[in-house]
Write a structure and sequence with these properties.
Chain A: InterPro entries: AA_ABC_transptr_permease_3TM, ArtM/GltK/GlnP/TcyL/YhdX-like, Ectoine_EhuD, MetI-like, MetI-like_sf. The structure holds 3 protein chains of 3 kinds. Chain A has 8 helices and no strands. Chain A is mainly alpha-helical. Chain A has one domain: MetI-like fold (Orthogonal Bundle), CATH 1.10.3720. The mean pLDDT of chain A is 92. Chain B has a single domain, classed as MetI-like (MetI-like fold). Helices cover 83% and strands 0% of the residues of chain B. The model of chain B has no long low-confidence stretch (mean pLDDT 91).
C-alpha cells in the first residue's frame, strides 16, 4: 500500500531527537515565563485599582481569543518595522510565554476563588495579614484546584511549540519540514513527530494526574 | 500608514480572508460536534471494541499537535491514495482535533447528569436510546454549553493554522500583505482585531444567548 | 467615611465594660440590619443573643470580629475603640494596621467551623500563634496541645478536618480560637450545623470554659435551653434592635414584651 522505510527512519532519527530537545527547551522556557507572569496577572486582577484591573482583564481576553500563530508573527515581524530585531527564539518565547500566562492567570484566579469565604474570615479572626492569609491559607488550598489546569497547560504549551516553526525555531516540526523537503519523503518524518508528541504528552498528562492526587491526599482534601 | 488607510486599501482581501475563516469555522465546528457526540457515546459504550476505538482516537488527537495533524492529513494522506484538496484538509484536521476535545466534554456532561434521572427514565420503561436522547442529552447539553463556548474559540483560533498549507484564510491574507508591503504592525494587527471581534463580540454573545435559551427550554431559568 | 464627634477616645474608670457598642448602625443599601445598637458586656460576662433569623444577631458578632464594617456609631473593646482610632483628638475610621492591633483581643468560632482543610488539627491551632503572635513552634505546640486536651481532641491532633466529625471539627475550632489568648470569645451559631447527637460535646466544652475561665463571651444561638443554663444575660433581638434583655431566669421565665413571648412560645412549640 505504501512503503515505510526503516533505514530512512534510522537515518533521520538523530536529527529528530536533537529537535525534540529544542522542543522541550522551548516548552520549558515558555512555561516558566507563563507560570511567573501568570501569577502577577492573577494577583494584579485582584487588586483594588479599578483601571488596572480592567486593562488586565481586557488584555487577557484579547490574547486568549486570538490565534497564537498570529501573535508569534506579530511579535517577530513588528519589531523590525520599528528597528527592534528579535531572534526567532526570543520572539517565540515572548509570544508563547505571554499567551500561556493569560491562561495560567485564569487558572490561578479560579483556584483562589474556589477557596470558600469562610477561610478568609477564619484567617481574619486569627488576625493574619493579607500576605499571611495568601501564603498560609489561600494559596495552599487553591493549589490542588489549580494543579489540573496548570498540568493541562504544560501539555498544551508543549503541543503548541510547533507553531514556532513558522518563524524558524528549529523544533520538531521545523526539522520534519526540512527533512521532508530535502528527501521528498513526508511519511516517516511527520509520523515520527506524531509518535514523539504522543510519547511525551501522554505520560506527562498521566504524571500530572498522579501528582495532583498526591497533593490532594497529602493536604487531606480527599 | 495609519491603520485606517491600511484597511481602506486592503479591505477586499481582508474580507475574503475573513469569509474563508468563517466558512472554515462552520465546517470544522459541524464536523467536530458530530465526532464529539459519536466518540463520547462510543467511549461510554459497553462494547470494548467501541470503547477502545474512541479512547485511541481521543488520546491520539489530544496527545499530538494540531499542526502535526494538519501536515499529516495534507502531506501523508495522499500517500495512502487519498488526495485531499487543501481547504478540505484544513477543516478536516481542525474538526477532527476539536472533536477529540469535545468528546471529553460530552462524556463528562453525560456522566454528571444525576443518577436519579437515569433511574426515573428506566422506571417509566424508556429504551436505552430514548433515555439518552430524550432525558440525558438535553440536560447534559445545558451543562456543557459554557465549556463548548471556550472550545469553539479554540477552534476559531485553530483555523488560523490552515494558512500554513496555503488556504487563503484571514491569517494567510495578513501574511501575504505583510510579505509584499512589510507593514507588519498594520497587517497582523488588523487580523488580530478581526479575530478578536469574531470571538468576543459574535461567538461569545451567541453562546451566552444559546446557554440562556437552552436553560429556559429545560426549565432551569 | 465618618469621623465621630463627641465620642470618648478611651473609656476609663472602674466600670469600663469589656465590650461596648455605642449607637452602632449597619445597613446594606436600604436594608437596615442594626439600628442604633447600644450594648455593654462586662469583663467575664457570658451574653447570649437570641432572636428570629434576620434580626441582626450574627451581624453583631461579625462587626465585633471586624468582618463587617459599620455605618454609624463606634465599638469599644477593653476600653479602646475598635472600629475607629484616635487621631488629633478625634475618632477616625480605623486603618488596617490599627485593626490588626485591636483584633488581637477577639476570637471567633463559626457556624461552619472554617478549619483550614490542608492542615491537621494541631497545625490549625498552631498556625495563629506561630504566624501571627510569633511564638516558637515548641511554645505554640505546647499551648495547642493543652487546649486540644481541654476540648478532648488530643488523640485526634494529627488528623485533617476532613477525617473529623462536625462536633470534633468545632471543638478544634474552639481550641484554635483560644490559642490566640483572646479577651473576648465569639460563638456564632456554633451548633447549628451539627447533627443533634454531637451538639452535646460542643456545648460541654463551652460550659467548661464558662465555669473555669474568666473569658468574656458573646454567643448567638438557637438552643434556648443551653442559653438559659450558662448565660449571665440574654438579649432578644428583633428587627435590628434589642427588644428585651435580662438574666435568663427573667427573660425565659417572665418575658415582658409581647414579641419575646411570641418568639419563645413559637420556639418551645417547635421542640
Amino acid at each position: 500500500m505504501f512503503d515505510w522505510r526503516w533505514d530512512f527512519v534510522a537515518e533521520i532519527m538523530p536529527r529528530l531527537l536533537w529537535a525534540t530537545g529544542n522542543t522541550l527547551m522551548a516548552a520549558g522556557i515558555g512555561y516558566v515565563i507563563a507560570l511567573v507572569l501568570g501569577l502577577f496577572l492573577a494577583l494584579g486582577q485582584r487588586g483594588s485599582n479599578r483601571v488596572l484591573t480592567t486593562i488586565l482583564r481586557e488584555g487577557i481576553e484579547f490574547i486568549r481569543s486570538t490565534p497564537l500563530i498570529l501573535q508569534i508573527f506579530f511579535v517577530f515581524y513588528v519589531g523590525p518595522q520599528f528597528g527592534l530585531v528579535l531572534s526567532p527564539w526570543v520572539a517565540g518565547m515572548i509570544a508563547i510565554g505571554l499567551h500561556y500566562s493569560c491562561y495560567l492567570s485564569e487558572v490561578y484566579r479560579g483556584g483562589i476563588e474556589s477557596v470558600p469565604r469562610g477561610q478568609w474570615e477564619a484567617a481574619t479572626a486569627l488576625n493574619m495579614t493579607r500576605w499571611q492569609t495568601y501564603k498560609q491559607v489561600i494559596i495552599p488550598q487553591s493549589l490542588p484546584f489549580a494543579l489540573a489546569g496548570m498540568g493541562n497547560y504544560l501539555v498544551g504549551i508543549f503541543k503548541d511549540t510547533p507553531m514556532l516553526s513558522v518563524i524558524g525555531v528549529y523544533e520538531l516540526v521545523h526539522t520534519a519540514n526540512a527533512i521532508g523537503s530535502e528527501n521528498y519523503r513526508f511519511l516517516e518524518p511527520y509520523t515520527l513527530v506524531g509518535f514523539i508528541f504522543l510519547a511525551i504528552s501522554l505520560p506527562t498528562a498521566a504524571l500530572v494526574r498522579l501528582f495532583e492526587g498526591r497533593v490532594r491526599s497529602k493536604m487531606g482534601m480527599n | 500608514m495609519t491603520l485606517l488607510e491600511f484597511v481602506a486599501q486592503y479591505w477586499p482581501r481582508l474580507l475574503t480572508g475573513t469569509a474563508n475563516t468563517v466558512a472554515l469555522f462552520f465546517l470544522s465546528a459541524a464536523l467536530g460536534i458530530a465526532i464529539a457526540l459519536v466518540m463520547a457515546l462510543m467511549k461510554l459504550s459497553s462494547y470494548r471494541a467501541l470503547r477502545w476505538t474512541a479512547i485511541s482516537y481521543i488520546e491520539i488527537f489530544r496527545g499530538t499537535s494540531l499542526l502535526v495533524q494538519l501536515y499529516w492529513v495534507f502531506f501523508v494522506m495522499p500517500l495512502f491514495g487519498f488526495t485531499i484538496e487543501k481547504f478540505t484538509a484544513g477543516y478536516l484536521a481542525v474538526g477532527m482535533n476539536i472533536g477529540a476535545y469535545g468528546a471529553e466534554l460530552v462524556r463528562g456532561a453525560i456522566l454528571s447528569t444525576p443518577r436519579g434521572q437515569w433511574e426515573a427514565a428506566l422506571a417509566i420503561n424508556m429504551s436505552p436510546a430514548k433515555r439518552m436522547w430524550r432525558i440525558i442529552l438535553p440536560q447534559a447539553l445545558v451543562n456543557m454549553l459554557p465549556a463548548w463556548g471556550n472550545l469553539l474559540i479554540e477552534l476559531l483560533k485553530g483555523t488560523a493554522l490552515v494558512s500554513l498549507i496555503s488556504v487563503a484564510d484571514l491569517m494567510f491574507e495578513a501574511k501575504q500583505i505583510n510579505g509584499s508591503t512589510f507593514l507588519s504592525a498594520q497587517a497582523f494587527g488588523t487580523a488580530l482585531i478581526i479575530y478578536y471581534v469574531l470571538a468576543r463580540f459574535i461567538l461569545t454573545p451567541f453562546m451566552r444567548w444559546a446557554e440562556r435559551a437552552m436553560a429556559r427550554k429545560i426549565g432551569k431559568a | 467615611m465618618q469621623n465621630l464627634v463627641g465620642y470618648p477616645l478611651e473609656l476609663t474608670g472602674e466600670d469600663t465594660p469589656m465590650v461596648r457598642f455605642t449607637n452602632v448602625r449597619k445597613s446594606y443599601g436600604p436594608l437596615v440590619v442594626l439600628d442604633d445598637l447600644n450594648l455593654d458586656v462586662a469583663e467575664g460576662e457570658m451574653v447570649s443573643i437570641i432572636g428570629p433569623s434576620g434580626s441582626g444577631k450574627t451581624t453583631v458578632l461579625r462587626m465585633l470580629m471586624t468582618l463587617e464594617t459599620i455605618n454609624g456609631g463606634c465599638i469599644y473593646v477593653d476600653g479602646k475603640p475598635l472600629t475607629h482610632m484616635p487621631k488629633n483628638d478625634k475618632l477616625v475610621l480605623a486603618n488596617t494596621r490599627y485593626l490588626r492591633e485591636r483584633r488581637a483581643d477577639i476570637g471567633m468560632c463559626f457556624q461552619h467551623f472554617n478549619l483550614f482543610p490542608h492542615m491537621t488539627a494541631l497545625q490549625n491551632c498552631m498556625e495563629g500563634p506561630v504566624q501571627v503572635l510569633g511564638l516558637s513552634k515548641t511554645e505554640a505546640r505546647e499551648r495547642s496541645e493543652e487546649l486540644l486536651e481541654l476540648v478532648g481532641m488530643i488523640d485526634k491532633k494529627d488528623q485533617h478536618p476532613s477525617r473529623l466529625s462536625g462536633g470534633q471539627q468545632q471543638r478544634v475550632a474552639i481550641a484554635r480560637a483560644l490559642a490566640m489568648r483572646p479577651k473576648v470569645m465569639l460563638f456564632d451559631e456554633v451548633t447549628s450545623a451539627l447533627d443533634p447527637e454531637v451538639i452535646g460535646e460542643v456545648t460541654n466544652v463551652i460550659r467548661a470554659l464558662v465555669s473555669q475561665h474568666k473569658l468574656t463571651m458573646l454567643m448567638v444561638t438557637h438552643q434556648m435551653g443551653f442559653a438559659r443554663d450558662i448565660s449571665d444575660r440574654v438579649c432578644f433581638f428583633y428587627g435590628g434592635k434589642i427588644e428585651e434583655q435580662g438574666p435568663p431566669a427573667d427573660l425565659f421565665g417572665n418575658p415582658q414584651k409581647e414579641r419575646t413571648q411570641k418568639f419563645l412560645s413559637a420556639v418551645s412549640e417547635a421542640i
